[in-house]
Amino acid sequence: MTRLWSAGRLTYAALALTAVLSIFPIYWMFVVASRTSDAMGQVPPPVTPGGNLGTNIARLFANTDAYFLTGLINSAIVAVSVTVSVVFFSTLAGFAFAKLRFRGSNALLMVIIATMMVPTQLGIIPLYMLMTKLNWNDRLPAVIVPALVTGFGVFMMRQYAGQAVSNELIEAARVDGCNTARIYWNVVLPALRPAAAVLGLLTFMTTWNDFLWPYAVLNDPENPTVQLSLRALSDGYYQDMSQVFTGTAIATLPLLLVFVVFGRQIIGGIMEGAVKA
Amino acid sequence: MAVQLDARPPVVPAPRHARSPRGSRLTRFDTRFSPYLYIAPFFLLFAVFGIYPLVYTFWVSLHDWDLLGTNPTFIGGQNYSQLMADPDFWHSVVNTLGIFVLSTVPQLLLALWLANLLNRQLRARTGWRMAVLVPNVTSTAAVAIVFGVLFGREFGMINWMLDLVGIDAINWKSNRIASWVAISTMVDWRWTGYNALIFLAAMQAIPRDLYESASIDGASRARQFWSITVPLLKPTIIFAVIISTIGGLQLFTEPRLFHSGTNAIRGGPLRESQTVTMYMFENAFAPHYNFGYGSAVAWLLFALIAIVAAINVLVLRRLGGGGRKEGTR
């Protein structure tokens, strides 16, 4: 690639405006979270943080409608289990599709690509009935197990494995007497680590955010995910906005932390996926 | 999506000198069956928790089926004919399409513009990219609640700013079009930057010399954008439109949490912004638990998604073809 167009003052101004619009709602969430509840009625609306964050957090965790701490712990359990599983099964299947020859592999890969277009969310009614049968209603397996694999993950790992794992290396391992499972574990998985990390981050964030299905199947108010705790806070009869916003800020914080630390990798993953897909 | 399926890797051969007959039989077994073993978990789990429920939804939709489901009665297409005459259902279809158009069109145009800005020699490149992507990594539920407050009637910041320029307060929650605008704003806020990065990636794959020869021929920057960038981005744009269609027509979290209170699933006092997915939820789960009717809603939504996606692709193909003709000199 030769030189890019230069960026003038106008470009920077437009980008700065976009950045402000992007960040402001998040920033403002933290502003309200750090103030008392009468911040809502002030004219003009306050745009600087106050000193009430500690009190708000204490009241939030003591709120008996929201079960916020349970929600945080549940969301962590769900997001981590789903992430580990998606990364494991996706690297395994991606390796098979990219590097192993077997009958029907092309057709099966097409099926996987097609699954990415299927709005599985529309199947939640029988899924709910299935969970009732399994006696998983109101319990975490109901939101973990259906999310254990994604077509997107398999496809992404297949694309990456094709270029990141050399055939010579696999062949050498075979000659040394490695079976396929050991090749996966000792040769392929280490080579896939960068892409697997991006997949893991994206999966974690999606799962942490999930709302519709948990809302349908976790009806016990004492056993929510954090997004359901937010719903309970927001739908409460008496709305204390500084407390609600403290909740939204805390529920967003893990995602923001992940993004600040791994932003470059996440951006790289999204952009690479776009070119290949 | 162009997937290269023909570029198969050379076969990874089995070891040439196996150490014992027993070992070689094991090895053959290993190379033959391991691939299936490795892809099986995906197919099994997706079949049970992805495809089966979706297909079974259709079966349920042909029944009068309640929560207990002890004795579902087969009623054929009755749920569907009832839906066809259900004004609340059609109301939700119009809401969904309205919000979809209001969110997707500006979103993709803005994303294109933003990608064009990002595709320049910038200082702090990663910083700008992170700034436009950050809305996408926030919690959807949290953002919906925050926007619900920003768009509040009495104390919302948006109405306060409108008041500064002399516009009367808008009732964003119970004016139908206004609620569509507010919810679309939320969706745009979340997805514009993401799509911009997708477009940016595709733009960077366009060979520079195309632009160089165009500018030698005297084409302006704007002309180059519409005649080179946009046509070459067509596959990516189609991909983004399809993804936005599938997601946008199933919109749930944003409109649901934009409203609060006991009847929020209706999307406002007169269902001003109830989407089809919300209507499905209202019927299928608490308090009605009318699984049969809810399933019929789900299948009609499925059909709607397929139709809209097909129309989008057709229209975009047509548009792109015209653009190219214009672009050749």
UniProtKB/TrEMBL annotation, chain A:
Pfam families: BPD_transp_1. SUPFAM superfamilies: MetI-like. The chain crosses the membrane at residues 12-30, 66-95, 107-128, 140-157, 183-205, 244-262. The keyword Transferase does not apply. It is a multi-pass membrane protein. Residues 72-262 form the ABC transmembrane type-1 domain. GO terms for biological process: transmembrane transport. Its main location: membrane. GO terms for cellular component: plasma membrane. Gene3D superfamilies: MetI-like (1.10.3720.10). It is found in: Cell membrane. InterPro entries: MetI-like, MetI-like_sf. Keywords: Cell membrane, Membrane, Transmembrane, Transmembrane helix, Transport. Belongs to the binding-protein-dependent transport system permease family. This is Cellobiose ABC transporter membrane protein. It comes from Micromonospora halophytica.
TrEMBL record, chain B:
The keyword NADP does not apply. One of its GO terms (cellular component) is plasma membrane. It is a multi-pass membrane protein. One of its GO terms (biological process) is transmembrane transport. Residues 93-312 form the ABC transmembrane type-1 domain. It is found in: Cell membrane. The keyword Cell membrane applies. Keywords: Cell membrane, Membrane, Transmembrane, Transmembrane helix, Transport. The chain crosses the membrane at residues 36-59, 97-118, 130-151, 232-252, 296-316. Residues 1-23 are annotated as: Disordered. Belongs to the binding-protein-dependent transport system permease family. This is Cellobiose ABC transporter membrane protein.
